[in-house]
Every structure is written in structure tokens, then in C-alpha cells.
DNA sequence: AAGTCAATGGGTAGTTCTACCCATATCCAG
DNA sequence: CTGGATATGGGTAGAACTACCCATTGACTT
């Protein structure tokens, strides 16, 4: 059973776009098609899971530039670069730029469907990770500036007394901040707080 | 100034191998050449930084299979797949298999050198990360089985009392284990211990 | 003007952790 | 067989943390 993950199609060729859209919808995949990179960007919501089937050669913003732009923003939308004339150089540049896959339009339907399903699954995985990450970030942004300062020292393992000295505060004040931090971030120990903080950039097994 | 990072070349074609070796050595890069994947594997030391310039088509174990094998072991040796007849399908499969780059042998010397230098730099970065990771692992493997068990609960933020109950021990014994753990891993707090443990799979910024 | 929040500081009691001291039993290697 | 590591348990004292209570100041909002 699929989630609400969508397949976005960006291709300026009406026939090709409609043909692919038909193919994917026949396989019960939710599709959203655009005829230019600009139109896609205007309506794309990065907080929904999905994958992107992207034509390389288009008037205006080309596929490679859109790919690079998307990668510079985030990397939780797997991109399948879709091309009519596959040359090695484009394929290499595309994949090194972070594309999930590189497909030729002449590929048979079975293969295309298979690759799209893989990209969709990857998109859902990345989306879940992103949700976790933003959840952590939101917890930490609830802290006031002072609390954030104290938090950074707590996850280094500094004792209240040391923090008080270094920040020129009384121990009582640090204790108060510490309590607020642990309430706001909803953790029961410094170990949990440490994991919460470092979960930004890591994927724990 | 380069470190001791080496460029490994694996190619069954003598002329090509020597030509590339000459090119790289002219640029003052340390080179180690092999005429088969098997010979390379026999003498490759995975604990040294470097990169691999790998021919696709070879008798015996082919380039793609060697790449996949190496990726299954670790991923701190960047591989540049080097091919005479670049077709899109091979390029895509190679890069999706985790290759760092895909180069055609017809490329000019300047380009080859540039790509090799990039791979070498990447190899050094990956090597440094690997050193950190193994350092953490070594610290943690110094723990006895019982200590490891206690450690896992400590980094979850469990209190000595709870650990004692769950493991059917006295608090005194848990305290003793805790002390030994922190001495062996050379940390001054549970927060540090937590970071040490989760540094296995993460790259902290 | 009143209310809320952040930041500051204090007291007191109870829990938890750390640092010392002590001991016993097992197992493995020199 | 003796020493070392592992695992177990106890006592005691002090440091650190937690959970309550109290208060003032300043800034921003309603």
C-alpha cells in the first residue's frame, strides 16, 4: 500500500509527459506533471514525500540546473534524470550531482516502472528522516538564547558549577536553565539531550 | 604537499597502465599499479589512504565486480572507473554502485589528472573519518561484556539504580562498572560517552 | 497598565553520582 | 600456583543534581 508519496514529472514534451503520466497512473502511482522546471518549483512543496522524473533538455531552466538547485536546498527528493539522447558525459555529471538514477526514454515500461518505484521508496525513507530531523530542530529552537548557550555546554558534559563560572552566573540560575531545557526538549537525561542534538547530522542505526 | 595517499591503478592493458602510471608520476603522485583485480586485492592495505583508478573490462574479476566487492567491505576508497568504450548503462551502474567518478580513457591528460587529484583528496578525507571511527570502536571494545551492557544503558540515560534493578545487580556493582567504563573510554561524562558511541555512524559538524 | 516571559538569585530537602576504603569468587595465563 | 582481570557486594563521605519553595528586574504584548 502506497503512502501519499507523489511522482513529479517535469518534461516540456507534451506527448512524452502524457505518455509517462498514463504509464505511472496505470500502475496506481499518484502523479503530478509539469511542463517546465519553473512551473514545478512554483508549486512544489518540499515537505511532502515523492520523487522527480526529470527531463534533461528543456527550454528555460534545464534538468541539470534544476537538479543542482534542488540539491543545494535539501536532498530528500530523489531525482531520476530522464533523457532521450543518453551520452556518457551527461549521465556522469548528473549522477555525480546527486541524481538518484539516470534513465533513457527508450527504456521499456517495465524498467521505468521499476526504477520509479525504487526512487519513490527512497523518497519516503528520506522524508521520514527529514521529519525526524526537523522535529529535533524544532525542539531545540524552543530554547531561549541563554538556554541554548547552557545546552551546548551540558552536552559537552560540563557540570553546573563550571557552566556557572564560565558564564558568570550563580549555580542556581544554571540549574533553572537546565531544568527548563530538559522540559522544553522533553528529555529525561543529558544523554538523551546529546543524542537529540547530534541527530541533526547523523543517522543512528 | 601530499600525504602518503597512493593512487592505485588496476588495468590489464600494459601500455595503458604504464602510460597512466607515467602521467601520474610526472605529476608527483605516488602510484601503485596492478594488472588484475586479484593482484590488487592481494596487496591492498585498506588502512592507508588513497584512490583507485580501475579498468572496467578485464579478464578474471571485472572492474564492476571489484568495485562492488570493495563497497561491500568499506567505503573509504574512492574509485574512478576508467573505460575505453563508455556506454551510458555501464556509467550509470558504476556510479550507482558507489564509484566516485567515471572517466573515459580518451580524456585528455589534464582532465584525468584533475579527477585523480579530486579522488585523492576525497580518499584522504574518508581515511581521516575512518581513523576517528576505528579509534572510537577500539575504545569501546576494551570494555568487558558486562561493562558493555551497562554502557548501553548509561547512554540511554538510565540511572545506576534502574540499571542495577534491570540487570539484577547491586548499585555498588553498577557504580564500579560505570567507573571502569569511564576510565577505559577516557571520558569525563556520560555526554562524552554518548557522543563517542554515536560517532560510529555519524559525522558531526 | 497589566500580564507574560526571560533571566537573574536564594533556601532546603532529597536523590544520585563520585571517590575513596574494604571484601570474596571465578577464571585464565604465565 | 600466583597474579591479573572480571564480576560481585558493602561502607562512608562529599560533590553534584533534582524538586520544590521564594524573590526581583527588564522587555515585550495585549
SSE layout and pairings?
Two copies of one chain form a homodimer.
Chain A: E1 6-10, H1 14-26, E2 31-34, H2 37-43, E3 50-55, H3 63-73, E4 79-83, H4 88-96, E5 101-104, H5 109-141, H6 145-154, H7 160-167, H8 171-184, H9 190-198
Parallel strand pairs in A: 1-2, 1-3, 3-4, 4-5
The structure holds a DNA duplex (30 and 30 nucleotides).
Helical percentage of chain A: 55-70%
CATH superfamily of the largest domain in chain A: Response regulator
CATH top level of the largest domain in chain A is: Alpha Beta
Using the 3D structure, state the CATH architecture of the largest domain in chain A: 3-Layer(aba) Sandwich
SSE-based structural type of chain A:
alpha/beta
Average pLDDT of chain A, rounded to a whole number, is: 94
Contiguous helical run count of chain A: 9
Strand order of the largest sheet of chain A: 2-1-3-4-5
Global morphology of chain A = elongated
**Largest sheet of chain A, if any?**
5 strands, parallel
C-alpha-based Rg of chain A, rounded: 23 Å
Along the chain, the helix and strand elements of chain A come as EHEHEHEHEHHHHH
Oligomer: homodimer
- Work out the strand percent of chain A: 5-15%
The count of β-strands of chain A is 5
- Cα(first) to Cα(last) distance of chain A is 25 Å
**Total separate domains of chain A:** 2
The low-confidence parts of chain A are none
Determine the CATH topology of the largest domain in chain A: Rossmann fold
Amino acid at each position: 500500500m502506497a503512502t501519499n508519496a507523489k511522482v513529479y514529472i517535469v518534461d516540456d514534451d507534451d506527448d512524452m509527459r502524457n505518455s509517462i503520466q498514463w504509464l505511472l497512473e496505470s500502475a496506481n502511482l499518484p502523479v503530478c506533471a509539469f511542463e517546465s522546471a519553473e512551473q514545478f518549483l512554483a508549486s512544489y512543496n518540499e515537505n511532502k514525500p515523492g520523487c522527480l522524473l526529470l527531463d534533461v533538455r528543456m527550454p528555460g531552466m534545464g534538468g541539470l540546473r534544476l537538479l543542482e538547485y534542488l540539491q543545494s536546498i535539501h536532498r530528500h527528493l530523489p531525482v531520476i534524470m530522464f533523457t532521450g539522447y543518453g551520452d556518457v558525459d551527461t549521465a556522469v555529471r548528473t549522477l555525480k550531482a546527486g541524481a538518484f538514477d539516470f534513465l533513457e526514454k527508450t527504456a521499456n515500461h517495465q524498467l521505468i516502472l521499476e526504477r520509479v518505484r525504487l526512487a519513490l521508496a527512497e523518497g519516503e525513507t528520506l522524508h521520514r528522516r527529514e521529519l525526524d530531523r526537523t522535529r529535533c530542530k524544532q525542539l531545540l529552537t524552543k530554547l531561549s538564547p541563554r538556554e541554548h548557550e547552557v545546552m551546548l555546554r551540558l552536552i559537552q558534559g560540563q557540570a553546573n558549577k563550571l557552566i556557572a563560572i564560565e558564564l558568570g552566573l550563580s549555580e542556581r540560575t544554571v540549574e533553572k536553565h537546565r531544568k527548563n531545557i530538559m522540559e522544553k526538549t522533553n528529555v529525561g537525561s543529558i544523554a538523551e539531550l546529546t543524542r537529540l542534538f547530534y541527530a541533526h547530522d547523523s543517522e543512528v542505526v
